[in-house]
Specification:
Number of helices: 5
Strand order of the largest sheet: 1-2-4-3
Radius of gyration: 17 Å
Number of domains: 1
Largest sheet: 4 strands, antiparallel
Order of helices and strands: HEHHEHEHE
Strand content: 5-15%
Number of strands: 4
Structural class: alpha+beta
Helix content: 25-40%
Length: 192
């Protein structure tokens, strides 16, 4: 058994139990959050998923979206992590509330992912990273003109890395439908 598979007290590390503890901490603030343990190497990367960002209204207007992402081999980077979790929520909406629910659910997911990152950092996972759902919406007035207003808190969308979110989530029995009807699913990824 390798050292990294053992906890500080010498017992076997169980990522599912660790995820449940991390999720319980996040649910103190956001009780409607769910998570599923995933294998980072099982993400489905497609150029067409990343290309969709080009047609988004946030393209080149958001510091955490394309073309402002670092030129990294994302499939390779993901496999450098041993564990991952899809973190998601389902938010009901009526047609007239869709845009508000869409924005607020994105922010709730984003803040949950940041809380989970902090939990990981506090438990010895200094390189944990998360990706949100859709463009970063932390700044109500939009991104800063010269740089990101929240460089420590802003996160990039998972789809901007080239992950086909619908197919990848489907492997774990998480169904995301477009266009959404009655509820919207917001899904992000955290890696450690």
């Amino acid at each position: 058994m390798s050292i990294d598979k053992m906890g500080m007290e010498g017992f076997m590390y169980d990522p599912q139990i660790f995820l449940e503890d991390m999720l319980a901490d996040a649910r103190n603030i956001f009780p409607d959050i769910y998570a599923v343990l995933v294998k980072p190497e099982e993400m489905i990367f497609e150029e067409r998923s990343a290309m969709n960002c080009f047609y988004c209204g946030k393209y080149n207007r958001n510091w955490k979206c394309p073309p402002n992402l670092p030129k990294i081999d994302y499939p390779k980077m993901f496999t450098e992590y041993e564990y991952g979790a899809f973190v998601y929520l389902k938010s009901p909406f009526a047609d007239e509330t869709y845009e508000d629910v869409r924005a607020q659910s994105s922010i709730r997911l984003h803040r949950t992912l940041l809380r989970m990152e902090k939990y990981l950092w506090e438990h010895g996972n200094a390189v944990a990273i998360s990706f949100g759902a859709g463009s970063c919406k932390l700044c109500k007035g939009g991104c800063g003109k010269e740089r990101c207003n929240n460089p420590y808190a802003a996160r990039s969308p998972l789809e901007a890395t080239g992950v086909n979110v619908i197919k990848s989530a489907g492997k774990y029995n998480i169904s995301i439908k477009f266009p959404p009807k009655d509820f919207i699913v917001r899904l992000g990824l955290i890696l450690w």
